[in-house]
């Protein structure tokens, strides 16, 4: 329960460390990664919350290679919602399109992901993956999967090394990936149609309240659209509202939606909303 801790000195709490950006020293790893990317016709990017600070470069990377991007609960908005390469959230509570891409891809590029259950179904979401390329600053997370080409260090610095090489990929090599992109596009459309059916569900009679009530997806959609219209930040608590929430939001950029990312922390949303009052740059927030 909440309790006032009188001797607490906020200045004595650990500060967020500031590390200088580091690059991959082994150029052989960069060459191996680019060779895998050029030779794969069924590749995906799995973008975790750690990729959000590098959204522009991840977008360039995806577009240069023509690669679908599967999001995590903490990375909605990394690509605009309607971007053709945005396959939406994949994982244990993922979308039709995100899980399709995960299940059928053969090369996986992980960027800034911890690979928890909500991100990759505890590792079993990639049924056909034969090779992995992992960009991360955390050495424990970067070595999560077997058969991994490890690119440790600052994600932005690593992408800055990869992009000049990948932007030179000939057009005929990109055409080899078009069939895969078409399959992912159809799955994205299927997901969009599925959501719309749920949003269009009419209110259902509730025996306890003795009146019609909106279904949870329809109600979340209304509030999420309102938040988008007024540029409000959305905070989702743990549970079914959260699982529906990060599937429903249609973010255009990172940091429009926050969840506790799989820690099952009940009370995250109201705590985050209250803590925003202490922010140097507060933003209107709505908790779900």
Automatic annotation (TrEMBL):
Q: Which GO terms describe its cellular component?
A: acetolactate synthase complex
Recorded hits in Pfam families, A to Z, give: TPP_enzyme_M
One GO term (biological process): L-valine biosynthetic process
Q: What is this protein called?
A: Thiamine pyrophosphate enzyme central domain-containing protein
Q: Name one GO molecular function term.
A: thiamine pyrophosphate binding
What residue stretches are annotated with the Thiamine pyrophosphate enzyme central domain? Answer: 30-162
Which family, according to UniProt?
A: Belongs to the TPP enzyme family.
Instruction: Extract the InterPro entries matched here.
Output: DHS-like_NAD/FAD-binding_dom, Thiamin_PyroP_enz_cen_dom, TPP_enz
């Amino acid at each position: 329960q909440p309790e006032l801790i009188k001797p607490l000195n906020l200045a004595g709490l650990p500060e967020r460390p500031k590390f200088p950006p580091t690059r991959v020293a082994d150029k052989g790893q960069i060459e191996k990664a680019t060779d895998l990317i050029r030779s794969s016709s069924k590749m995906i990017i799995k973008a975790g919350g750690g990729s959000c600070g590098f959204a522009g470069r991840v977008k360039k990377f995806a577009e240069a290679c023509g690669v679908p991007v599967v999001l995590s609960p903490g990375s909605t908005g990394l690509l605009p919602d309607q971007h053709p390469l945005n396959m939406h959230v994949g994982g244990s509570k993922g979308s039709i399109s995100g899980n399709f891409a995960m299940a059928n891809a053969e090369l996986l590029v992980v960027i800034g992901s911890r690979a928890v259950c909500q991100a990759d179904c505890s590792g079993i979401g990639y049924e056909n993956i034969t090779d992995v390329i992992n960009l991360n600053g955390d050495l424990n997370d970067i070595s999560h999967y077997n058969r991994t080409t490890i690119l440790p260090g600052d994600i932005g610095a690593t992408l800055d090394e990869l992009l000049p090489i990948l932007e030179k990929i000939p057009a005929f090599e990109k055409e080899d990936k078009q069939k895969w992109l078409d399959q992912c596009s159809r799955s994205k459309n299927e997901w969009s149609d599925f959501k719309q059916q749920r949003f269009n569900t009419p209110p259902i009679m509730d025996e306890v309240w003795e009146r019609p009530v909106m279904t949870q997806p329809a109600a979340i959609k209304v509030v999420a659209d309102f938040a988008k219209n007024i540029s409000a930040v959305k905070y989702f608590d743990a549970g079914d509202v959260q699982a529906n929430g990060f599937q429903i939001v249609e973010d255009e950029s990172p940091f429009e939606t926050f969840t506790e990312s799989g820690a099952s922390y009940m009370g995250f949303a109201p705590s985050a909303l209250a803590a925003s009052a202490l922010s140097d740059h507060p933003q209107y927030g709505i908790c779900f």
